[in-house]
Write a structure and sequence with these properties.
Blueprint: H1 5-16, H2 21-42, H3 52-64, E1 66-69, H4 75-91, E2 97-98, E3 102-105, H5 112-118, H6 121-131, E4 135-146, E5 167-172, E6 183-186, H7 192-202, H8 213-220, E7 227-230, E8 237-241, E9 246-248, E10 255-265, H9 271-277
Helix pairs in contact: 1-7, 2-7, 3-6
């Protein structure tokens, strides 16, 4: 295999080019997706984080697509955050969206305590370096998911947030086990050199954000080790490039609380984004 990942991906595609029209469509989709990704990255300039710890976290995110930071919050801080989250749910029922989980976008608007996580400077430094443009936290999602039959997990199944680069900071507010809805991610699925191969192997469509269980099984068949499941103690921070294929595993037991910062390029924020995620709780 070539030492350059991009050259290796091209060699692999050439070897796999099929005569069937259906497979050819996937190859075309892969090539176009890689071109779109490269064009978006070429328009951006890197912005280095100003905090040394943020630089360490950034290195992990750039190399492997995620960084796990244990003990970012203490157990006591998590308990207080859970209480605040439940208070926001009770005080602002019109803003609670109910899917597989209960969620409120913009919890920082109703809680100074939750705003501390939303406005954390080191997290913003990493986000800005990952997104390579002036960046802000559009809002913080407060989520509670309870075990019940037929739930699809937080996020409603496998998906990727974007085909370019997306970044989130996720804080577990309780202990998360295999049974309590951990984040799961397909390693390297955000990388352009792997993206093309995954489109072919998974038989994914062009710009397909939602991915079926069957397609994920096809992606994992050659190497099951690509499935990363983030079980961790309360207070653990996950920094994730969510252009990778990921999901919240369907919860089987108990309840899980979490906070998630949605970082975006500053030019993307505004009424259109709020309308997409509506209702969003905002300070007057």
């Amino acid at each position: 295999m070539a030492s350059n990942p991009r050259k290796a991906a091209i060699q692999w595609l050439r070897a796999k080019l099929p005569p069937e029209a259906s497979r050819a469509r996937h190859v075309a989709a892969a090539a176009l997706t890689m071109a779109q990704y490269a064009a978006a990255r070429a328009r951006a300039l890197p912005i280095a984080p100003s905090v040394s710890q943020a630089a360490v976290w950034l290195d992990h995110v750039q190399r492997q697509g995620y960084c796990t930071v244990p003990d970012f919050y203490t157990a006591r801080s998590c308990e207080l955050a859970v209480r605040e989250l439940e208070r926001v749910f009770a005080q602002y029922p019109a803003y609670v969206q109910r899917k597989s989980d209960q969620r409120v976008f913009g919890v920082e608007a109703a809680s100074p305590l939750l705003r501390e996580f939303a406005c954390h400077p080191r997290l913003l430094a990493v986000a800005q370096a990952v997104l390579r443009e002036p960046t802000l936290n559009a809002f913080t999602l407060g989520a509670r998911i309870d075990s019940r039959a037929g739930n699809a997990g937080s996020g409603e199944g496998w998906h990727r947030d974007s085909f370019v680069v997306q970044f989130k900071a996720i804080l577990y507010l309780c202990d998360v086990t295999e049974s309590t809805g951990p984040l799961q991610l397909i390693v390297d699925s955000e990388k352009p050199w792997r993206l093309a191969r995954d489109i072919v192997e998974g038989r994914l469509g062009l710009a397909q954000n939602r991915v079926s269980d069957a397609q994920v099984e096809r992606l994992l068949e050659p190497d099951p080790r690509r499935l990363c499941t983030f079980t961790a103690k309360a207070g653990t921070l996950l920094l994730v490039n969510t252009s990778a294929i990921h999901r919240g595993k369907p919860i089987e037991l108990g309840t899980r609380h979490a906070l998630t910062n949605y970082y975006v390029q500053a030019r993307q924020a505004g009424p259109a984004m709020d309308a997409h995620f509506a209702p969003v709780l905002r300070r007057a």
